[in-house]
């Protein structure tokens, strides 16, 4: 089976990448699967693209092979785009999904239903030795619920209701999330390249 390194230490993302790539007969190997422990990559970029490139390029250089990295987040209109680039550590370090959810719900408590629009963004960077890094971006539109529901997925899934649905992303079956998510929409743009592996 072909393999590809995905430069992530996020268990939720790693699980989804494994599921996505299995359909291409490719085994996705996350940084959590590697025998040696890989130092955290500091995300000093000012955009999702910069952070995704930082992660993909550093790991591609270390292993001299093609590497995919994902920088993603939740963008909420009523919070002027926050948590955005800082979605992982919105409530501070170490990252804690529940604390992040609590902070968003607290900041959104007085926001009326019609103003609770939000979207997930996923930027994939593909770094290959000797080649320019390329990018694919996917979105998933929706809105922020007033409380959290469901226990599938990860991150902010329990408070995000995808457009066209009346349940949160965390209430959806994982296979369903993988059909509509920002990650899926970004990976769909990779299809041609994945067949070249
Ligand atoms: O509910 C969610 N469903 C998703 O599908 C999703 N995708 C991203 N996120 C949030 O955005 C942060 C990414 O930050 P991020 O791209 O820096 O990843 P990370 O730091 O968790 O791991 P790594 O990939 O950098 O190793 C994550 O921690 C989450 O809070 C999601 N939340
Ligand atoms: Mg990160």
TrEMBL record:
Keyword rRNA-binding listed: no
Catalytic activity: dITP + H2O = dIMP + diphosphate + H(+); XTP + H2O = XMP + diphosphate + H(+); ITP + H2O = IMP + diphosphate + H(+)
Superkingdom to which the source organism belongs: Bacteria
UniProt binding sites for Mg(2+): 42, 71
SUBUNIT field: Homodimer.
UniProt cross-references to PANTHER family, sorted A to Z: INOSINE TRIPHOSPHATE PYROPHOSPHATASE, INOSINE TRIPHOSPHATE PYROPHOSPHATASE/HAM1 PROTEIN
Protein name: dITP/XTP pyrophosphatase
Annotated source species: Oceanobacillus kimchii
């Amino acid at each position: 089976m072909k393999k590809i390194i995905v430069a992530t230490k996020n268990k939720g993302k790693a699980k989804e990448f494994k599921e996505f790539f299995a359909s291409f007969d490719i085994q996705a190997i996350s940084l959590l699967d590697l025998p040696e422990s890989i130092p955290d990559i500091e995300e000093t970029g000012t955009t999702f693209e910069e952070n995704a490139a930082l992660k993909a390029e550093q790991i591609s250089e270390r292993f001299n092979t093609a590497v995919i990295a994902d920088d993603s987040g939740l963008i909420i209109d009523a919070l002027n785009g926050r948590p955005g680039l800082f979605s992982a550590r919105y409530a501070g370090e170490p990252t804690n999904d529940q604390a992040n959810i609590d902070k968003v719900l607290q900041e959104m408590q007085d926001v009326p239903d019609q103003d609770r629009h939000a979207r997930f963004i996923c930027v994939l960077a593909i770094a290959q030795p000797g080649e320019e890094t390329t990018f694919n971006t996917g979105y998933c539109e929706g809105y922020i619920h007033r409380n959290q529901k469901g226990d599938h997925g990860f991150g902010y899934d329990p408070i995000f209701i995808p457009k066209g649905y009346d349940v949160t992303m965390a209430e959806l079956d994982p296979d369903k999330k993988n059909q509509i998510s920002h990650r899926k929409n970004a990976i769909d743009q990779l299809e041609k390249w994945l067949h070249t592996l």
